[in-house]
Amino acid sequence: MCYNLSMCKLTISAYQLMQSFPDGDTARVYLEQLCWQGTPTCPFCKASERQYKEKRDGKDGYYRCNTCNKVYTVRTGTIFERSHVPLNKWLFAIYLIVTARKGISSMQLSKEIGVTQTTAWFMLQRIREACMDDNLNNEFLFGTIEADEVYLGGKEKNKHTSKKQDVGGGTGGKAVVLGMRSRNGQVRATSIPNNGKVIRDVIRETVCINSVLCTDEHPSYVGMPEYMHKSVNHSAKQFVDGMAYTNGIESVWAVLKRAFYGVYHAFSRKHLQRYLNEVVFRLNSGNVKIHTLDRIDAFLGMCLGKRLTYATLVA
Length: 315
Known about the structure:
By secondary structure, this protein is of the alpha/beta class. The chain folds into 2 domains: 14-38 and 77-131 and 289-314, no CATH class; 139-267, Nucleotidyltransferase, domain 5, CATH 3.30.420. The chain has helices at 14-20, 24-36, 87-99, 106-113, 117-131, 134-137, 196-206, 247-264, 272-285, 292-301, 310-314, and strands spanning 51-56, 59-65, 71-72, 144-152, 175-182, 187-192, 212-215, 228-231. It has a 5-stranded mixed beta sheet, sandwiched between helices. It has a 3-stranded antiparallel beta sheet with strand order 1-2-3, with helices on one face. The longest helix has 18 residues, at 247-264. The two termini are 40 Å apart.
């Protein structure tokens, strides 16, 4: 898409973004053009013929479908549906998610766009819901794949008595995340129970057979003859053995932990996968050679059909 904006070749500043979308109407028109290419399409029956503009409470942006007789807006069926936050503030929140290397907290976002912390948290969780790329998750990783697990959470001995789970030290009581990274740069991360069979099952569902699988010495990776398995022994201070190393996936954990400790301070297990989706989205789609607005446009395309209600979120 061609942008008639004053900016450098590959990025746009927050100031320029807010100048380009000074109010909700300009952001709405931009989103309508991006989603409908000038032809309003009913999200209920998918008809694009005989769509008529309506005004509600003196506001533009409403359309009535003459096929199913339902009223809709460009927000309908997206993460923006039934939100009272203007779309220009939504665009700024998405800009921050796309460009912030380690994410942004709901408290900081609430100060940036002038909403309550609860509203900012709900917005961020909806954005994280859209970060899950269904098309990407249906594709297998292939080639040389690095796999590793990471444990998130505090030590049992440091927790309040009411929070302790009496599961011993070490990794006990921590959330487990399995990550896989192709040497071509694609990343997957999944919250899983601490179980070797589950680890092997997730790898089989994600990695193409006959791929080269590089891991550490964890026994959960043993017993998958469909892969060419190469490992390094971290406990013996072995980090590289020819083409066997896990430095790529370890760099993913470095970014995840910086977000965990430095920005969010904690992930609840209930919402952990959404935070993982956010980190993985930035790693997979965060190529700085792609213009920031192109990355935002790609994200907006992922917002369709992913409505998340507050009742569902907190249930």
